[in-house]
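By way of example, we now present a protein record of this kind:
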Amino acid sequence: MFRGGTRPQLHPEDAALDRMRAEVWCFEATQGGGGVREDAWVQRAEGGSVMPKYIILMNLTEQGVKAIKDAPARIAAAEKTLEAAGGKLLGFYATMGPYDYVAIAEGPSDEVAMLQLIGLAMGGTVRTTTLKAFALDEFSAILSKLP
C-alpha cells in the first residue's frame, strides 16, 4: 500500500500514457507482481523520475552522410517514435569530435530502449553506442547499499 493509502499524483506532463502505465504498475505494486515499488511512487510524487535514462552516442554511416540534409526530419521522426513508445528525448546535439551526435533520452524500460535503438540502426544512417545513465540521487541510493 502507498503511504497514506492513496496513490500519489503524477506529473501533469506525463499525460495519458503515463496514467495508463501507472494503473498497471499500481496493481502490480500492490499485488507484489514486480511492478514499480512503493518508493518509486513516492519518488515520482516528489518530482523524481522513475524512467531509466540513456546517453546515445551516434556516428553517421556513409548513407547518413549522403542524406545529411534530411537529418532534421529523421531526428523529428525518431523523437515521435520514441514518444509513442512511452519515452522522451531529453536532449539532442550535433557534436564535433569522435561522435557526430549525442542524445539523452528516457524510456519506460531497457527492452523499449533496445527496440528503439534497433529501429534506429535499421534506418541505416547511424551507428549507436548506448550508455545507461544514473542521476546523482539514483547513484547515491545505489552507493548507500554498500556495506
